[in-house]
Amino acid sequence: MATRSRGVVADYLGQPNTLEHGRLYHNEGLGPDGRPRFRDVTREMRFDRALLAMGANFGDLDNDGWLDAYFGTGEPRLETLVPNRMFRNAEGKVFQDVTTAGGFGHLQKGHAIAFGDLDDDGDEDVYAVMGGAYGGDAYKNVLFENPGSANAWVELQLEGTLRTARPSARGYRSFVRTPAGER
Q: CA 126, CA 59: separation in Å to the nearest integer?
């Protein structure tokens, strides 16, 4: 068993491990001293597992307004196989591991991760750069096309004027009121 991946194996087997995990911090705003405050929410959001992340990004896979997370995993050594991982954000309360359910557990080493609507169908797809530093570790990149969800989406075309805004409408913010509140 590879020493650095021992924590990943322990997590899958439900055993404790002593490896340090990545951290997720929530921005609590400015403190009384005017300095930003952050709170470690790693455990409560269920990110307290070994990931060996070499690349990661956030995007909204199910169009629910909450950013989900995809981790490109691995380590430089050829013999290390660690599945890449996808986590669904359940309304900002917890991240659910949907790696297997969504078919995201690619075993090649993941590096750069990008979210974007590549087929212009209103949902975000995932593009992952795969491979490693060794010649025998050069794998093809992967595109995960999102089949969509039942959640609706809206496309806006923004235009500004020279008098009221930038012509490109850059920096524009919109707010939507829903039964759950403003988002």
A: 9
For 125-181, the pLDDT digits (tens) are 999 998 876 776 778 899 999 887 666 666 667 666 656 656 566 666 677 777 887
Q: What average pLDDT does the chain have?
A: 80
H helices of the chain, in order, are: 6-13, 99-102
Any idea which residue has 């795969």 for tokens? 130
State which residues form the domain around 102.
6-26+37-153
Say how many C-beta atoms besides its own lie within 10 A of residue 85's C-beta.
Answer: 25
- Could you give the number of structural domains in the chain? 1
C-beta of residue 11 within 8 angstroms of C-beta of residue 22: no
In the chain, the amino acid numbered 135 is G
Given a cut of 60, whether residue 88 has pLDDT beyond it is yes
Integer-rounded Cα Rg, in Å, for the chain is 19
How are strands ordered across the β-sheet holding 142-144?
110-116, 125-130, 142-144
| Nearest CA-CA partner of 74 in 119, 159, 162, 133 | 133
Fill in the amino acid letter for 93. Answer: K
Placement of tokens 């005017």 in the chain: 34
Q: Is residue 170 part of a domain?
A: no
Residue 183 falls inside a structural domain: no
